[in-house]
Amino acid sequence: MYRSSGVRRLVIPALCAVLVLGAVPGLSARGQSESPIVIHDAWVRETPGDATSSAAYFVIENRGDVADALIEASTPLAGVVELHTMEHQGGVMRMRRVFAIDIAAGDSTVLEQGGLHVMLMQLQQPLQAGATLPLTLLFDSAGQMTIDVEVRPARSGGRHGRN
Ligand SMILES: [Cu+2]
Fold first, then answer.
1. How far is ligand 1, taken at its centre, from the CA of residue 37, in Å?
2. pLDDT at 153 over 70
3. pLDDT tens, 47-60?
4. Residue 146's CB: how many other CB atoms inside 10 A?
């Protein structure tokens, strides 16, 4: 309200210029998928009983020419969200926090059960299959995006058919 329209006029064309430059390789017709980062097959595990933690999985595709990294994730439904990986430690698989998940240029990185995942803790409500959870992802280069993540039963894999 207090901002003069003059300032807005300067800011908006500048943003558009950045978005258009970013879109040159893909030349999206509707101009809404400017990001070189594309998320596929996003799902989050249903929570059994009164569990308050879960994990989200998806494939991150980097269609751009520069390497990128997922550095942060958040959702209003969880108090704490961390990036995790799984690794062997003395014969036991343990989760370990990581601070970046790299996606090479022109490549994809898979977050899946038994590997990289987005850990959701302090969930404020149970996650029931069929619901969706908004997940905001912050990339080092591509910036922020929010995706809808489908809640699926715990036993299903990340790549089962959808209907
Ligand atoms: Cu974890």
1. 23
2. yes
3. 998 899 999 999 99
4. 11
